[in-house]
Amino acid sequence: MADVSRWDWEIGTKAIPFDAWKADFAWVEEPYVSPDGERIAAVVNLDDAQFSVCVNGRAWEGVFDKAWYLRFSHDGRLSALVSEDGEWTVAVDGETWPERYGYVWNTLFSADGARVAVAAQQDMAYAMVLDGVMWENRFANMTHFAISPDGRHTAATVQVKETGEADIARFQAGCYSVAVDGDAWDSVFTNVWNLAFSPDGAHLAAEVRQGLYDYTIAVDGRPWERCFSSVWQPVFHPVSGAVIAPVRLEGQWTVAADGAPIWPRRFVQVWHQQVSPDGQRLAAIVSPRYGYWTLAVDGVPWRTTVNEMVMDLRFSPDGRRLAAAAKHDGRWTLLVDDRLWSQRFDQIRPPVFSPDGRLVAAVVETEGRFGLVVDDRRLPQSYEALWQPVFSPDGTRVLVRGIEKGTYRRQVLAVDQLLA
Amino acid sequence: MHAIYGWVTGPLTWIAFLLFFGGLLYRLVQLLILVRRKEPFIFSYMSLKYSLRSILHWILPFGTVNWRLHPVMTIVTFAFHICLLVAPVFLMAHAILFEEAWGFGWPSLPDVAADWMTLIVIAGAVFFLVRRIVRPEVRFVTSTSDYVLLAVVAAPFVTGFIAYHQLFAYRWMLVAHIVSGQVMLVAIPFTRLVHMLFAPLTRAYTGSEFGGVRHAVDW
Amino acid sequence: MAQPAKSEAKQIVDNGIEKGAAGLTEDRIQAVINRVIKGESGARLKVYVDTCVHCGLCSEACHYYLSHDKDPRYSPVAKVKQTLWEMIRRKGRVSVDFMRRAAEIVHTECNLCKRCAMYCPFGIDIAYLMMVVRRIVHLLGMTPQYIQDTAHSHAAVSNQMWVKPDEWPDTLQWQEEEARGEIPTLRIPLEKEGADIMYSVIGPEPKFQAQLIYQAAVIMDVAGVNWTMPATAGWDNSDMAMFTGDNEVMGRIKREHYETAARLRVRRIVMGECGHAFRSVYDVGNRWLGWRIPPIPIIHAIEFYHELLTAGKIRVAKKFKTPVTIHDPCNVVRGGGLHRMARDLAHALCEEVVEMYPNCEHNYCCCAGGGVINCGPPWKNKRIEGNRVKADQLADAKIRGAKVLIAPCHNCHSGLEDINHAYELGLDIKFFGDIIYEVMEKPEA
Fold it and tell me: How far is it between the farthest Cα atoms of chain B?
């Protein structure tokens, strides 16, 4: 991860006018803000089919036929997918990669944000491109893209055998595999979905279907011995290295590790399982009974349920606390440690824990206005747009990045004062 | 003869009613357990309002498009089912038997009315029989069991009618009437006659899905 | 006009059914049937089978039955008799030939339109029973070839038409560029987190009917809607896996659709004019995943357009002159109650609306739905013959003046197009979107 401690944590506000840009361009698209809050950027239109990217009021030198998918990496690199003369490439901080492709999409960053990968199509063949270097091997089709946390490897589901039109037998026999850095596994499957790299990038697990009915997890190309009637995306245990995935058995879901169910209890649904950072606990979003949702920790569901949806499961950094966005009767709130916040919102963003896990904050939206809620207390300030808050490493300050009255403000606030 | 009569009106009747009520209860509980075990989502869509809305339309003669499409069938089936339920329950002879046994009874129908209702049930059964034979779409899905069930339902009314009018072999007819009535009662929970119990439930479920989820009518 | 077309004697060979039939044993059939009937199914199957009194009153609900001069084999209950009843009676021990015929019945003689559920006095959902058989057919690997291929497409690329991951955003950008010829500032905002609406479509739109995306973009733009479209998988709301009984793939693609909307933090999903996709996202797929109601509200285009017009966000410059008639797609009418809004919309947009009868919930199916049209070319004629009654209905509307047929559903469109052609009806078939695009006030270019 980027070194957050080096950011400017002085209490105070930096303001950058945003709406004012609109006078300089034909139009300004939706803004993106750097993780450290120092820059605000948007794709801008200069003229008919002339696009650029404007950062803090200054446009990149390059002008493109098209520009989209503006994204800041974790260390603040700003990337965009750009097109010139019908060819596509990636622009990072205004510099385009020298290589050109038929199409590029789905930008991925390494955990530290230093490496940038995209999926690319060249002459109707597909490969991943990492920092401008395309895999040597190209494939007839490619889906489900992944980058290892260290950014040294990229992977994707690839089609390794040709299929004729509506050749269902051939499809079922298996035409898909996974390529890591361009090298496909020896094994083929009917389908491969949702890849997961191990934390060290040395292993890769994926959901696979063998034939029409047998679902399991394949790790480095080798499927688990046991098959299930369905599976969801696997994760690697950060400590033991075990591969953990939700599996469907006799019409209900549970969690399996390395091919064997580990949760005795069955659920209507289990997904988005996550191991706590210390490796001690395994949590997942579950539906303990039809139409009701909550979290389960180590197989035991919480008592508090909501009746529409739970998403964005997050552990506190110390692994002791757990929070998720929850929707009940059409309104969102936060589900924290088996309790719901008292307030309800039109929309809520993923929860953010302070480094010591003491506080949990979330950006919320009500009637088109955004606000920050910390431990169920809504801060008075409201915004036109608001990004995820960031706590300082010592947990005493919080970085708030928002737009109000057309001006972007980077505010560093003292947590104590905030809650006073 | 007395012994036979005593036996069919005594132990057999007990057994028949026990199997009838017990059987219905069993089917209902079995159904609810099955829903809970395999399709618990069904409960979550059930709506009293839309269940009743659907049931009301369908228990009203000509209350639905399909009832209006088949006017003769509609008249016959309503008349048949109403008489089938009302005649035995409100027949004076049944009420008296019940009062003798339990010490209380309920108002009953004049015999002439009950007689006509019996004839309507018999005529309805004949209509269904003929319909099964002459209508290709019905004949195609008819099996022996459909005829047997029709006979099981018609039998108590035919025998009852004969016995009441003492047309012949009164005592034997009476026994036949009682036994056939018992057979019908027992058949209800364990054959397609269970629609007596299930039809309102399937109707309620479809009504709930159409009304509550799909915002449409189901008639 | 409505020729009696009889070619039933001709045996249609479907490679998918034959592929499954080859090497199939009665033991395997029995095991699969019992697994589905005893294992996967529950109260509905049992009660529906135990309650049906074989009265045949469902017959006249079915367009196949009516179109085949009331041939009893096509009545809804007859299709249950020829499949499930026999399977249950023989405890699953049925022959390969029996399964061949069963696959044909459930895939090509029933559109799962649920009209019969409105005609059965007990409300027995025969479409559900047909789906139970389709599930058996799926587990035996006997699903007709073309719809099976479509299910493969859903599984491989998360859309119905083998659209590759780059082709999707590329097509949207192309349509955006095209539309800028008309409205220079128009955007198709991709991956815009926090938009009010995610607009989702079905696979054929980017593949063959990109102008529909263009039109939708113009409508969104003129109405000033804060909208977005995903650039990732999850953009396709369609679902043929639902109709092949491949519930696992159905659940997978529905999850992707909803989680894409959740990721984009939109308030609602608006979907294009598609019927079966509405059924899948609103009623069927969500349930398999455990979502009692859609976790993100989903609005069909009819409802959305109705909302835009009512709120005055789009205004009619000049009403559509040619008389129109409305086809009520089963999945949004019997499945969503949108027939009233469809009529409001038609009256707001068009000068003359001619009703066809029966209509609203009682409308006849297009005969394409339920995956029947997706069974492909081998079954096309059978499908057209199976809906003569629709041709009669349309011809009647035409006699009373209708020249344009509005069908707010993709499969209906394709099916009605075939009927229109085969029975030489000469109607012009349109979506509501086509008409709105034509009559709405647009900024001067």
Answer: 61
CATH number of C316-439: 3.40.50
Which among A30, A176, A290 is the nearest to C156, CB-wise? A176
Interface ipTM above 0.95: yes
Domain residue limits, chain C: 15-143, 155-309, 316-439
Say if residue C36 is exposed, middle or buried (CB neighbours under 10 Å; 0-12, 13-18, 19+).
buried
CATH homologous superfamily for the domain A224-344? Peptidase/esterase 'gauge' domain (2.130.10.150)
Cβ-Cβ contacts under 8 Å for A271 (sequence gap 6 or more): A232, A233, A246, A253, A284, A285, C255
* pLDDT, position C2: 44
A303 by Cβ neighbours in 10 Å (0-12 / 13-18 / 19+) ranks as: exposed
**Any CB–CB contact under 8 A between A50 and chain C?**
no
CATH number for the domain harbouring residue B201: 1.20.950
Which chain A residues contact residue C141 at CB under 8 A? 172, 212
User: How far out from the chain centre does Cα C367 lie?
Assistant: 10
- CA C347 distance to own-chain centroid: 24
CA dihedral sign of residues C359, C360, C364, C365: positive
Contacts B40 to A, Cβ<8 Å: 289-290
Neighbouring chains of C at 3+ CB pairs within 8 Å? A, B
Q: Which two tokens stand for residue A378?
A: 């809504």
Give CA separation, C185 vs A28, A48, A67, C175, C445, in Å. 11, 9, 15, 13, 10
Instruction: Report the CATH architecture of C15-143.
Output: Orthogonal Bundle (1.10)
C155-309: CATH topology is Rossmann fold (3.40.50)
Residues of C in contact with A287 (CB under 8 A): 290
Asked whether residue A155 carries a pLDDT value surpassing 50, the answer given is yes
Structure token pair of residue B82: 């109403």
A334 close to A324: Cβ distance less than 8 angstroms:
yes
Q: How far apart are CA A225 and CA C161, in angstroms?
A: 33
The yes-or-no answer to whether C155-309 and C316-439 have a common fold is yes
* E strand residue ranges, A73-135: 78-84, 87-92, 95-96, 103-109, 116-122, 125-130, 133-134
Whether the pLDDT of residue A136 is over 50: the answer is yes
* C-alpha distances in Å from residue A184, one per residue of A9, A201, B153: 46, 16, 70
Instruction: Measure Cα distances from C389 to B24, C185, C366, C386, C397 in Å.
Output: 43, 47, 10, 8, 13
Nearest to B219 by CA among B66, B69, B51: B66
Q: CA–CA separation, C394 vs A193, rounded Å?
A: 45
For chain B, give me the number of helices (H) and strands (E)? 12, 0
H or E element: which one contains A416?
helix A415-419
C360 contact partners, CB below 8 Å, separation of at least 6: C328, C333, C339, C340
The span from the CA of A102 to the CA of A125, in Å, is: 9
Residue B104: pLDDT over 90: no
Percent of all residues in chain C with a pLDDT value above 70, rounded to a whole number: 98
Neighbouring residues of A205: CB distance < 8 A, sequence distance ≥ 6: A195, A196, A198, A217, A218, A219, A220, A234, A235, A236, A243, A245
Query: Chain A 225-254, CB below 8 Å of chain C: which residues?
Result: 229-230, 248, 250-251
Do C166 and A121 lie within an 8 Å CB cutoff? yes
Chain C residues with CB under 8 Å of B219 CB are: 118
| Percent of chain A predicted with pLDDT > 70 | 100
Which residue(s) pair with C316 in the sheet?
C440
Whole-angstrom distance, CA of residue A275 vs CA of residue A298: 10
Give the CB-side neighbour count of residue A341, counting CA atoms within 13 A.
Answer: 26
Residue with tokens 């209906």: C412
Q: Using only C-alpha atoms, what is the Rg of chain C?
A: 22
d(CA A290, CA A251): 12
